[in-house]
Amino acid sequence: MLFSLLAGGAVSADQKDARLHDLFSRLLIAPGPAEAQVIEGAIWHIWVQSDDGAVRALMEDGVAAMSRRDYRRALSRFDQMVAIAPDFAEGWNKRATVHYLMGNYSASLGDIVRTLELEPRHFGALSGRGLVYVALEDEQRALEALSRRWPFIPIWFRRRSTPKRCARACARNRSRYRPAACARCRRRRS
């Protein structure tokens, strides 16, 4: 199903990809979690793509370093990526994630701002901002951040939860390196 969602004409793959509009429309009306997860996966697949080979290599190496918890190497790769591709939203989002994992919350918030300037629908960055504020124990700002993500949440999930419930779950389950937030927040911060 992922391949059928990604099918289409020749387009550039990043936050400007023409397929994203349709995918976000489908995400909002997804009938359940399985369908929403497939659509979110298609969106993430597009976001991490770049037509620039150097950016692709830095993304692969940075993500691999993150998965090994080698945050210094990951940060170095994402620093290079945003320097050579400052209009590539996912480079900023990945760097924001590494800053968050290292406890550099101010730097993470700065990169999240840039991510959202480039891709206002970036649910990962919107969730990430909420998680940063949870880590800073600022429940009000966490709630505001998660509320801004709400328009990009499928209808089936909105019926089951609220931004406030999500923020409280994040706060209750906070840990230094990988907050065990509600299931939606964990998936969004990839």
Question: How are the elements arranged and paired?
Answer:
Layout: H1 2-6, H2 19-28, H3 33-47, H4 53-67, H5 71-84, H6 89-101, H7 105-118, H8 123-135, H9 139-149, H10 155-158, H11 163-172, H12 183-188
Helix pairs in contact: 2-3, 4-5, 5-6, 6-7, 6-8, 7-8, 8-9, 9-11
Can you give a write-up of this model?
The protein has 190 residues and is mainly α. The protein has three domains: 1-49, no CATH class; 51-120, Alpha Horseshoe (Serine Threonine Protein Phosphatase 5, Tetratricopeptide repeat), CATH 1.25.40.10; 121-190, no CATH class. It has helices at 2-6, 19-28, 33-47, 53-67, 71-84, 89-101, 105-118, 123-135, 139-149, 155-158, 163-172, 183-188. It is globular.
Observed structural traits:
190 residues, mainly alpha, Serine Threonine Protein Phosphatase 5, Tetratricopeptide repeat, 3 domains, 12 helices, disordered N terminus, disordered C terminus
Structural class: mainly alpha
What's the number of extended β-strand segments?
Answer: 0
Distance between the termini: 21 Å
CATH superfamily of the largest domain: Tetratricopeptide repeat domain
Mean pLDDT: 81
Q: What percent of residues are in strands?
A: under 5%
How large is the radius of gyration?
Answer: 16 Å
Helix content: 55-70%
Overall tally of domains: 3
| Level-2 CATH architecture of the largest domain | Alpha Horseshoe
Overall form: globular
The residue ranges in which pLDDT falls below 50 over 5 or more consecutive positions are 2-11, 175-190
Using the coordinates shown, work out and report the CATH topology of the largest domain. Answer: Serine Threonine Protein Phosphatase 5, Tetratricopeptide repeat
Order of helices and strands: HHHHHHHHHHHH
By DSSP (H or I, 4+ residues per run), the number of helices equals 12
